[in-house]
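Quick one:
INPUT:
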């Protein structure tokens, strides 16, 4: 099992761009070692008889089916536009 020491905690903190005070390095190392122990226990579990899961809960499509329609609702969509021109929304110029 990998043991996390103060040097490793410093390296992780540097890579994450996180400042950890010298007095706290030992505590972080101990906490990370506890986490690594738990991960080791999980890795040692026999899961050979378990089916792989992609999701914890069953995935169900909640969307409706697409239906082709011949509706022309352009005028209905444009009726609330503050400014329109030739059947399109007119917006202020953004790029000169």
């Amino acid at each position: 099992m990998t043991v996390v020491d103060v040097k490793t905690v410093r390296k992780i903190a540097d890579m994450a761009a996180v400042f950890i005070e010298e007095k706290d390095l030992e505590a972080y190392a101990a906490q990370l070692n506890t986490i690594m122990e738990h991960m080791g226990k999980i890795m040692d579990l026999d899961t050979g008889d378990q089916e792989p899961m992609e999701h914890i809960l069953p995935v169900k499509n909640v969307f409706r089916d697409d239906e082709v329609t011949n509706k022309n609702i352009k005028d209905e969509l444009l009726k609330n536009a503050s400014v329109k021109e030739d059947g399109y929304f007119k917006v202020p110029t953004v790029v000169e």
